[in-house]
Amino acid sequence: MKHYSIPPLATDPKHVILHCGTNDLQNKSPQELTKETGELCDFILANCPNTDITVSSILTRKDNQGNKIAEIPRAQQATLTESLIDIIATNRPDKAKESGVIEIVKTRKVRSTYAPWLTTDIRCEMNTRDYLKKKAVKNNSKSLHQAYKVKRNEVNKLIKSAKVQFCKDNIQLNKDNPKEMWENINQVINGKGRCSKTTTMITTIKDDLGDIIQDEKLIADQLNNWTKIVKSIA
User: Fold this and answer.
1) DSSP 70
2) How would you label 160-198 residue by residue, b for 16+ Cβ within 10 Å and e otherwise?
3) What is the pLDDT of residues 1-52, one digit of tens each?
4) Position 137 in a domain
5) Which Gene3D superfamilies does the record associate with it (predicted)?
6) Is the pLDDT of residue 195 over 50?
7) CA end-to-end distance (rounded Å), the chain
8) Residue 158: its pLDDT value, please?
């Protein structure tokens, strides 16, 4: 308890109200609890002799240790001891350091949504969509689930339209640079740009007459002709 009293005493308060909590109320007699509370009051008066002290209550605190332990990786749960459980329950940094326990840091994967066709307005709509989904799952609300689905469909349409416009602008800007044009188009198709090593093998195409072409050389010739046509139109 003294550990938690030191920060407030740094301000030299005129009055202190103690709300005492203990985890071992069932294992101690009233006399022991009273004695420990008195020692705490003496500690406060030694540091702040002009402070008035009022004891509000002495309560027992029950920590749900099961939930706290569940947050620890399964491989480490088998090595838990009573002292380690106490560290987890009290969340005392000094106890962790004294026992040599390494603090477990939670990590969370953050999804990157960078794309050149995503405007600020679309990102705001995406944030609204994600917020509705989070609230719908948390509250298990049918109306929120429905609102999320509507917003999701709206966002999908906006993204699709933005991709189409991006491709049109890209063809116009890079009509003399086919390499750059196709790199940008590949970024739309598979979400990867210049650094992508993904290769899409085209094994079958249809010509203008609807005939199926499977020969690699003929496929390449058809694609080259299409590129020339696009360039001339642009």
Assistant:
1) H
2) eebbeebbeebbeebeeeeeebebbbbbbeeeeeeeeee
3) 555 555 556 667 777 777 676 666 666 777 777 787 788 788 778 877 888 8
4) yes
5) SGNH hydrolase
6) no
7) 77
8) 92
> According to the model, what pLDDT value does residue 219 have?
78
Q: Are strands 212-213 and 205-206 parallel, antiparallel or unpaired?
A: antiparallel
Total count of domains within the chain: 3
Instruction: Residue 216: give the domain boundaries.
Output: 201-233
Count Cβ atoms within 10 A of the Cβ of residue 158 and give its class: 0-12 exposed, 13-18 middle, 19 or more buried.
middle
Please provide residue 20's backbone torsions phi and psi, each rounded to the nearest 5 degrees: -85, 130
Counting every residue, how long is the chain? 234
Q: Is 210 helix (H, G, I), strand (E, B) or coil?
A: coil
Please tell me the distance from the alpha carbon of residue 178 to that of residue 229, in angstroms, as a whole number. Answer: 12
Of the candidates 128, 196, 203, 193, which has an alpha carbon nearest to the alpha carbon of residue 158?
128
**Residue 3, domain member (yes or no):** no
Residue that is written with structure tokens 């491709």 in the block: 167
102 in a structural domain: no
Domain assignment present for residue 90? The answer is: no
